[in-house]
Design goal:
heterodimer, A: mainly alpha, globular, B: alpha/beta, Glycerol-3-phosphate (1)-acyltransferase, six-stranded mixed sheet, 6 strands, about 50% helix
Chain lengths: ~80, ~280
């Protein structure tokens, strides 16, 4: 899981596994709101991503997340830092 | 009377007569409304600034929140009957027994501000969730503080506080629509109620409210007086046990449970709701 595409695919899988969201619905520009992911789900997702990547996502980064693409960017930055 | 005037060859007064009757109804309604608000204000003041300060010091601090909630329950119990007595409303509750058990998560639709008044009169030891800004309003902040109502800033804090309250034996009143919502909209719930019930392993009790006519809904103010005495119906449904989704991941279980609650409320609406004014 290094480049954007791989991170995106992992997220798609996670969304299906955690929130039963059909991967076909998930695109880079899709917002959390459209996917009906609330703030409690977002925290669950943050915990899960921490388990997978071993890196902690800063709360201020997470606050600014609106779309799937935003998560991909944050994770990419974390993995390559 | 209108007929009599007609015999004298005067223009019909039926319209004026009806307008007068409506005016008299409006005035009496205003009197009843002002009385109800006055009694509420005076009662709150007496309860939280006279009675509670006299009764609470005698008991250990850990028993005080439950004592405050019991006093509030008794006061609201009197108040809803008083409102019926002066003709502010006529209310009917079906299945109130379900609300008397401790440690339940009560989830209700929220058409009017009065929902919470009726629920507080039915549930002993009730904790509810309030807007953090309300904790600064003078007459309201005292019961919030003494009853330990939940004024959480974040959803995570709200869930933690709610689970703790349930585990202490209190029942939790939630309006998972999040805010007062017009009754003609389809029922849609936030998922935190399901999450709380799952984490506390507490049964959910759906309650459906119906008003005819509606008053004190979102955008209706105290001076928007209905033209007739409102009839209020509260239907308490059978408990919904979160065990029915056990074994699933929490995020998925709370989705399933939320769908079940929404279905319960929609069914109650189909059975007991009726449209028209």
């Amino acid at each position: 899981m290094k480049n954007k595409q791989e991170i995106f695919e992992t997220l798609r899988q996670l969304f299906q596994e955690m929130f039963e969201i059909d991967p076909g619905q998930v695109e880079m520009e899709t917002t959390f709101q459209t996917l009906d992911i609330d703030s409690i789900d977002a925290v669950d997702l943050m915990v899960r991503l921490h388990e997978i990547t071993g890196k902690r996502i800063a709360p201020e980064d997470f606050k600014n997340i609106r779309t799937v693409g935003n998560v991909v960017e944050v994770i990419e930055r974390l993995l390559n830092s | 009377m209108a007929l009599g005037f007609n015999r004298l060859g005067l223009p019909p007064l039926t319209d004026d007569w009806q307008r007068l009757q409506r005016g008299v109804r409006w005035l009496s309604r205003l009197g009843v409304t002002v009385t109800s608000y006055g009694v509420y204000g005076l009662g709150s003041f007496l309860l939280w600034y006279v009675i509670y300060p006299l009764t609470s010091p005698w008991m250990p601090p850990e028993n005080r929140p439950a004592h405050a909630r019991h006093l509030s329950f008794l006061a609201f119990n009197f108040f809803v009957r008083f409102l019926e007595f002066i003709g502010y409303w006529r209310y009917r509750v079906i299945g109130a027994d379900q609300l008397r058990q401790p440690g339940r998560v009560i989830v209700a639709n929220h058409p009017s501000f009065l929902d919470i008044v009726l629920l507080f009169s039915l549930v002993d030891n009730a904790v509810c969730v309030v807007k953090p800004s309300l904790a600064k309003v003078p007459l309201v902040s005292a019961p919030i503080r003494h009853c330990r109502h939940i004024a959480a800033e974040t959803p995570q804090q709200l869930i933690a506080d709610a689970v703790a309250a349930l585990q202490s034996g209190a029942s939790l009143i939630l309006f998972p629509q999040g805010t007062r919502t017009p009754p003609d909209l389809p029922i849609s719930f936030q998922r935190s109620a399901a999450r709380i019930a799952l984490e506390a392993e507490a049964p959910l009790i759906p309650v459906f409210f119906h008003y005819q006519p509606l008053l004190l809904s979102k955008g209706q103010w105290w001076y928007n007086l209905p033209d007739k005495t409102p009839e209020v119906l509260a239907v308490v449904d059978e408990a919904l046990n979160p065990e029915c989704v056990s074994g699933l991941r929490l995020s998925i279980a709370s989705r399933r449970l939320t769908l079940m609650m929404e279905a319960r409320l929609s069914d109650l609406e189909k059975c007991h709701g009726f449209s028209g004014k």
